[in-house]
Amino acid sequence: MKYPQWYKNILLTWKPKSGKSTMLDSLLASVKEKTWIITKQVLDEGGTRMWFNIVDNKWKKFLLSSTTIRSDKKFADKYWIHSVGIKEIMNNFAYEKWDLIYLDEVAPMQIAADWFKEFATSLLDSKNPLLWTIKLDDNKYEFIQQVKTRKDTLVLDILGQEFNEIFLANLVKKIEKSQKYLTEKERFQKLSENERKMDSQSSIRTLHTGEIINCDCDFYENYGICSHSISLRQII
Ligand SMILES: [Zn+2]
User: Which residue range forms the structural domain that includes residue 97?
Assistant: First the structure.
């Protein structure tokens, strides 16, 4: 087949201190329909890491780990891991079908817990586009390796190279566009069991559905992902 893969999960790998958060914040600022979970570190006055919080899109804040508040699980000989908050977020994490889900970041501290892996897997398996950040050195973890080899997951190395930043910006625009298409389902017409025609205004697209969804547009041909295939995945 001409198009071997179709992606809906985008795994962004980055180097610490590469300015990733600032870049992503500004990229995602324009996306109205989104749901997120982010991890924030809290420093003491001397600049030492004290604890990590998990914050969701309703700005609910939960303790993930602490150097001072004890629990029954320790990570890296330094942080006590707390599961109450993460479980609360997992249990209440609701997203709309057009939402872009943003997970920043999934690090060894989180994946040390099985229930977090289950939660992350449910997001990967959802129909929604998912942006997920990991650090480059997290590669040695089996769970991360498994995620990287998923057929629906595109791995992008964001090291501040111009190409990637522009591509990422384009990708976010495609995701935004797909959200618009979701509210205009009349654009999609069923041609046969596995074939849809899509009126994208600028032209007519043909998409094939099955184990993967492919599209005949240029962006898909180059990157294995496009606004048309993302929205069709959420419609069917
Ligand atoms: Zn397309």
Answer: 9-180
